[in-house]
């Protein structure tokens, strides 16, 4: 699936995907709108960064009062700009001035603009409405990144269209990491942390409110670039889901890893995300499942995201069953490291053996893994052992734990840097860590190691965790989680109406029962209950009864009928489901980020005994849906759990597909099927709660 190109709009091309990213990374011209001559102001930074860090293209500055700023001539307004070619702009104006400036830049021929300013968070704000009108105007071709973002950064070309504090200190080291962050401030913090550890950056995109350009589109563009090996992403929510499949296809095709930290995982976080950017965010369980299936590796916090990027840059990714060697100044840290490697999927502790010729060590040491070197002030012994383990051919990666208590930092760094030079340089990559997060090398020493290809991670626990994540398969089945929240529904469609929009479901028969005599239709036992148009929670209102014989019928019918009259509902009678089935709960609903998804959980008494669920996305094809179901706790229940019969998974998936299709087609806004009985052959659906879209 292509991630490059331009789409035609009113006779002119509008860049997207890789075409847009390529323009942003190396524009021929840059327009700075709203630059300040006062170097103490944030609005002065973008122009200063462009001049200071080697941008070689054409520069235009728009300012109504100055003839020049920092030696660059100014034009008084955006309408006075010359015709632009392969140009991008950075717009740093009050919100009410942005729409007109964006319109003028498009007319001048700019291909993209980064809008820095805030004031666009509320969907009802006047600046936001006016900017949306400009962007959606027929013939508008320019792409807009932001607003409410820090900007973009391309280290190789010097195209720094941002006001990041990182660049006030020095230029970042050029590397092969790409970053996409919806939060500019958090992205700036992530960038600072990476640079303090010497990581090299290729490009960074901060996307803000994403009124036109989303994180997935920019990620697709970064994956297509030869100067990017790994991409780190911070998301609050997915706004450009149409690009999601292209990102997934591109990542699998090129073999590059995507590490994502997804925030807004709780109801409180989702509410905060809405207030922050106006972004709609849905239940996290569904987002997590879709991200995993698409090949994203999700991490739990910002520190782990940084660790994965640092380790990936030095060690690469995808080392399945990687053999890890540990060299440590502390026996205790070796024990911790061994525990973590043993517990980590995709990693193993390799056995070095006792052959001193295979691993050349100081005579006082014997080959072991972990290898404890408790000598103080003998830094050379420590670094020589690291080199021996790396060169032995036994280990895929070496983790070394150092401490300022035992080692001279200058000697340590010089020795390790020297190991990676010359034809006999060690083959296995090295991850260097410390006894604690407070016992670290200095920033300059860390930068020297990073430039030599050594990953520096604060602790052995974090080092092993990052190695495990970078070695993990791209698609990981969920562990079931604690269960996505299914909101309590009000009244909706009754059984008859729901059956009409859910064709093909294997329903347990029912019929209207306006009288007790009519309730005898199916014999006994049978269920007398409300039809569900006005009553959803039947048990709470006494609107359902299992009738086993004639003696119970009149009393049960009278009780159910009274509840139905009070709540404007009808009485019906339903057959009992065939015996021997296993209960499941199936629901489907629309997700504001990833589209329709379904939850499948054990039902009845099994709900508490077997926690967990399967999450099925409407985006997935039939084989993927089946695999995800079988890999979940639900799948294990279907596969002869504790001597139970093997259940008809295909019948359950047919029920899921029917529910998903109804939501995707807009026939229903939500549907809950509970219970669904599953058998060795076939399924039976007993009840439904559903509402129209």
Number of strands: 32
Shape: flat
Distance between the termini: 32 Å
CATH topology of the largest domain: Rossmann fold
Give the fraction of residues assigned to helices: 25-40%
What descriptive keywords fit this protein?
33% helix; Rossmann fold; Dna Ligase, domain 1; 7-stranded mixed sheet; 693 residues; alpha/beta
How is this structure best described in words?
The protein starts with 5 loop residues before the first strand and ends with a strand. The chain contains 22 helices and 32 strands. Residues 6-11 and 476-491 have low confidence and may be disordered. The chain folds into four domains: 6-311, Rossmann fold (3-Layer(aba) Sandwich), CATH 3.40.50.261; 318-471, Rossmann fold; 509-575, Dna Ligase, domain 1 (2-Layer Sandwich); 582-691, D-amino Acid Aminotransferase, Chain A, domain 1, CATH 3.30.470.20. The chain has a seven-stranded mixed sheet with strand order 5-6-4-3-7-8-9, with helices on both faces. Strands 11-10-13-12-14-15-16 form a seven-stranded mixed sheet, sandwiched between helices. Strands 17, 18, 19, 20, 21 and 22 form a six-stranded parallel sheet that branches. The chain is α/β, with parallel strands linked by helices.
Task: Give the secondary structure arrangement, pairings included.
Blueprint: E1 6-9, E2 12-15, H1 17-25, E3 29-33, H2 45-52, E4 58-62, E5 68-69, E6 72-75, E7 87-91, H3 98-108, E8 112-115, H4 126-135, E9 143-145, E10 151-154, E11 159-162, E12 174-181, H5 184-196, E13 201-206, H6 215-223, E14 230-235, H7 244-254, E15 257-262, H8 267-277, H9 284-293, E16 296-299, H10 302-315, E17 322-328, H11 331-343, E18 347-349, E19 371-372, H12 379-391, E20 397-402, H13 409-419, E21 430-434, H14 443-451, E22 455-459, H15 460-471, H16 495-501, E23 510-512, E24 526-530, H17 538-541, E25 544-547, H18 550-566, E26 571-575, E27 582-589, E28 597-602, H19 606-609, E29 614-617, H20 622-630, H21 633-638, H22 649-664, E30 670-678, E31 683-685, E32 688-691
Parallel strand pairs: 3-4, 3-7, 4-6, 7-8, 8-9, 12-13, 12-14, 14-15, 15-16, 17-18, 17-19, 17-20, 20-21, 21-22
Antiparallel strand pairs: 1-2, 5-6, 10-11, 10-13, 23-26, 24-25, 24-26, 27-28, 27-30, 28-29, 30-31, 30-32
Helix pairs in contact: 1-6, 3-4, 6-7, 10-15, 11-15, 12-13, 13-14
